[in-house]
Each structure stands twice: as C-alpha cells, then as structure tokens.
Amino acid sequence: MRSTPSAALADFSPQAYADVFGATLEQLNKLKRTIQGKINNIEDEIAAGEPFRRQKLAQLQTATYHVQTAFEGLESGLADVGNTAVRIGEQLETIDKQRTRASEATDLIAILNELNTGRHGQLDALIDGGPAGESRAAIMVRRLSAIAREVDVTDIDRARKAIETYSEALEKRFLASFDSALRERHLGKMRQYARILTEFNGGDSVVGLWINQHEFFMNQTKLSAERLHSPLALGGDVTHPTLQQLCTDMNETCHRDWETLQAVFPVPSQVMGKFIQRMFAQTLQNYLENFLAAALDRSPLYFVQHLTLAHHLIWRLVRSLRNLELVSVNDAAYLTNLLERCAEDLFVPYLDHQRYQILEQRLFKALLGKALLVFNNYEAMHVKAMKLKNNPSKKTAANLSAQMTAFLSTLTGDKASEKESANRGPTSPDGRGVPCVETAMLMLQLHIASARRCHELTRKGDQPRAHTLFFKELIEHLGHDYLERALEMAIEDLQNADLTVAPTFAQLPMIPAVNDILQLLQIHFQHTVVPVVSSLAPCHREAVVLRNDLVAAVEFRINALLSKQLDAVSAWIDQLLSKQRKTEYRITETPEPDTPTATCQAIVAFLRVVFSKLSEHLAGPANQTADRENQMAFLNSVGLLLFHHLLDHVKKLSISCTGGLLLARDFALYHRIMSELDMPALTERFEMLKELGTLYIVKPENLWTVINEGHLAKVEAQVLFPFLQSRLDWSKMSQYERDLGLQKAVMRDRERR
What we know:
By secondary structure, the protein is mainly alpha-helical. Helices cover 77% and strands 0% of the residues. The protein is flat.
C-alpha cells in the first residue's frame, strides 16, 4: 500500500541534521581561530624583523656606493697613466726622430765633407753592405743632391759637382745591376733595384731601361709596310696580315708581361701605361702611317678599306687590353683612359673634322658612277640620237646610223671588231638601256660596304645622319639616274617610234627588272638603313620619304611606259584595219569554210605576239604580284582597244548577208583568242561582238528578234542603230520595218529602265 506525501512529512525529523550541522560549524570556528592565530604570529615576526632588514639594505647601498667610487677613481687614474704613457711615447718617438735626423744629418755632413774633398769611402761602404746599404746609400745621395741644390754657401759648387758625378755613377751602377738581373730574369733582384731606383729618382730611368730593352721593340725595328696585294673589289673587304699580327703581338706581350710588372715595380699600372704609350706612339703609329700612305697612293678605295681594317683591329686590341687584372679601380680607370686616348690619337689625322665622311661620300659617288658607266654611255648616245632624229636630213641620218652602229659594235662586236670583242660575251642589259638586277645588286653592295665602314669609323651619335646621306646618294644614282632615266628613255623611244611598223615591245623587259630592283631596294632599306636611322626620328623620316618618293616616281613612269606601249598597239591595230578593203564584206559568193579574212589573221597573229611578249616579260614569278597585275591590266586594255576598234571599223563598212558570214567568222576568231586569256569581263564583250555579227546574217524579219535576245538585249537601240545601218540591205528595207523595229527597241529600253 503506497504512502501519501503528508504521511512522509509526518515521519521526517530535522533534529538529527541540525545536530550534525552544529557540530561541524563548531569545528570550523576552532580551525578559523587557529589559523588566525598563526597569521597574527607571522605578522608580529615580520614587524619585528623590518628594522633589521632596512638596516641591512642601507648598509648594502653604502657599500655599493663606495665600490663604485673606488672604480671611478681607479679608471681615472688609469686614464691619466695612459695619457702620460702616450705623451712619453710621443716624446720618445720625437726624440728618436730627432736623434735619427741628427745622426743622418751628421752622416750627411760627414759624407758631404768627404765628397767635398773628392773622397766617397762612406758611401762605398754602405753600398758594399748589401741591399739595405744600397738603399740607404741611394737615399743619402738623393738627400745630398737636394741639399746641394737648395744651399748656397761658399765652396758648395765643388761638392755639388761631386754629388752629381757620384749620383750619375750610382744610378748607372743600379741600372747595370737591374739590367743584369733582367737578362738573367731574376725577379727578386729586379724588384730590389726597381724599388731602390724608384726611391732614388722616381723610377723613370729603370722604367725606361725596361722598355728600351724589351724584346718587342727589338723585334719590330725591322718592321716595314707590307705590300698591298689584296684584290681591289668594289664592295669587298681587305686583309692585312702584318698589321693583324702586330696587334696580336702587342696584346700577347702586354698580357704576358703584366705579371712580371706586378712582381717587379712598385706601381705596375703606370709602367704598363708607359709601355703601351711607347708601343702605340712608336711602333703602331709609324707602321699605320706608312701602310695607309701606301694605300692612298694605290686608290682612295684602298685607303678607306685599310683605314677601316686598322680601326677595327686597333680598337679590338684596346678592348682586349682593358681586361688586364688590375688591383684597384683607379688603376683600371687610368689604363682605360690611356688606351682610349692612344687609340683616338692614332686616327685624329684621318677622322677629325669629318675628313673620312667627306672622302667616303666622294668615293661612294664615284663608285656608283663607275657601276653605271655602260648605262651612262648608252644614255649619252641615246640623247645624241634623239637630237639627230629631230633634225631629219641625209647627213644627220648618216651620222646617226654611224654613231649608233659604232656604239653597239663596242658592246656586241661587229664583223670588223669580232676578234677584239670575242671575250666580252653578249651585250649587257645596261648597254641596251635596260636596268639590270646585277648592276643594282652591285650598287647595293657598294652601299653596304660604305655603311659598314661608316659604322666603324663614325661616332655613334653621327651615324644616323651619315647613313641618311649615303642612302640619299644611293637613291639619287640607283633611282633617279638609273631606273627613272631608263624608263624615260624607253618612253621617248615609244613616242618617236615609227607607227607604220609593228611594235617590237623592246621596252617591256625593263618593267620586271625595275620591279625586282625596287623589291631588292625595299629589303635593303629594311635590313641596312632602318636599324641605324631609326634611332634619330628626323633621319628616319627623311629616309622613308626618299624611298617612298622613288617608288612613286618609278611607278608613275612604269604606268606611262605601259600607256605608250598601249598606244603603239592601238596604232598598229588601227593600221591593220585601215588596210582592209571596204568591199571585203560585200561579197555575194559563199566564202571558203573556216577561212577568216587576211586582216583578221594579221590582227590575231599580232595579238599572239602581244600575248607572248607580255607572258615573257610581265608574267613574273608566282610570288611577285606587281608584274602579274601589270600583265592583266595591259591585256585587258588591249582587248578593250581591239573591241572598240572593231566596233568603229564595222560602222564604216557595208556588209552583205554573205559577207556577214565572213564577218561572223572573224568575230568568232577574235572571241576564241580572247577567251584564252581567261578574263570573264573581256570574254563577255567579245561574246556580244560575236552576237553582233549575227545582225548581218539573219533575214530582215528576224532581225528584231535577234536584237531582243542574248547580250544585244542589254544594248540600247541608239547604240545598235549605226551597226544596223551597215547592213547592205538596210536601204532596201521598208521604212515601216525600220521604224517598227526601232520603236520595239526603244520600248524595250524603256521597260528595262
């Protein structure tokens, strides 16, 4: 049976718990009192020991103060002692110097008195005492020399002379000892006497002895200018083995002797500088002057070629000598400046005041003129021929024929001069007034050679302007005097050609040659001129303008030449058509099958000649579009000319129905030959021309049907009317038929509009 909550509360007794809590609380109070008592005892002990602690701390502070004061006093005392010791040392040093100076002065006075009496036993004793004695004797003699120069007392002249005499003898003795060590290659003795002589007189004498006795100058005393035997090539390079070997010997000698100089001389960089100055000023300059003078006597081209070679070799030597392993930066700067100054001094007579540039420009101009010599001769003869041709007379005609024959015989050789010209080969294009790629290549090579020499011999800041001047000279000769003049002469020949003779197309070969030369010039400009002139904007702009002006001028003359050639073709076609009988198409008998008229055959034969010449001279390689464009444009113009000539020619004829068959056969042949050109626009025109021929074949009642069909339907009635009038039966047609047909054609035109 479960108990209720009220019953549980009735059974709970709190007294037991209260007793437990009371006992526990009493124990805690006892523990609290015990702990508090201990705390109080500790606080009492601390309070009792505080005065003693403070007393001890005060004692420690006092002791520390006394110790610090003692250390400061000790330090001050030590400093005073040190200063005193330093002062004592300085005084002792001063006293020692004074004693030494007094001793030396005593010795100097004694030696001076001895020398004044003509004796020098003390100095000899010092010298016999070994290296240290020799060094001391050298110092003593140097000081005596200074004293003798400064002191002005009685009887000093005798001592001064004695000192000078002994000084010279002593210097000779030391130099002899150095020379002996040099011959024995004893570096220790060489260093010993080099230092003694440096202290004695600054070392100039020993340096001079070492340089004078050097084997390099001994071997170069017999050096003479080598004979100039290199081939004289217009754009080629020259070689000079002797000069090259001389520079190589100088380089190897300096690098080999640098270690010796470092081991022997106190200041090796200055000794090397004097040695290099001597090599440049004596050996190299003398040889350079001799062989450049010989080159100038040979030719200006030889001179500039050898000058360029010498400049290249010598500056290569300078760059190599800069790599000597110098100890300090100051030595490196000193030697670099000295080398550059020596090299520049060698070329001052040749490069200063733009002497080289003036000579190079004159030479370049002369070489370009020499390259165009054959062409210029032809031009001169052409000018004379044009003048004589403008004065028609028997005498002038005879002179013209004789002069041109004589000129051509000098190029090709006639029967009389066949033996003399057997070795000359065929006539060059220049000799016929046609630009030659080989000549242009030669001129470009000349420009490259001049540009290389200019790059080597001209300061970097002046190179863009100099290269622009050379390029301007190249444009003047290659462009104006060569390409443009050749095209102008060809145009003059076409203008003065005999129109009663078929054109020869002799001027066409120069068009692909000119285009090839322009492409070569463009490549040359990009690879040779632009890299140099691009660093200076005005020069680059001027060079680009020169090139563009030349290209524009040449293209203008090419177009003019093609136009004149086209006029010649047009004139000859007109000449052939004018020879045709006006009654040739008025026949009443049936013509022979597949037999065109003689005029048509002549024109077709001439057209095939035209196409052959154009294909031969204007087709060009697959990667050259300029000539192909010229060819296609010229062929299109020839086709249009023929088309219009035929239209005008038909208008002047009277054509019968049977003659229309012959005309249609001619037109079909024209259409066939034009179709071979594979030019759709031109083929379409001749298809219309072919259909135009049917106007003369059909019966009158079918005429208007033909007009309204095919290509003729695109032609206006007013244009077709003159061709209809050429029908032989046009006058026989009734007025009604003619008006009706014309009315239908007009209505057709209106509807089409």
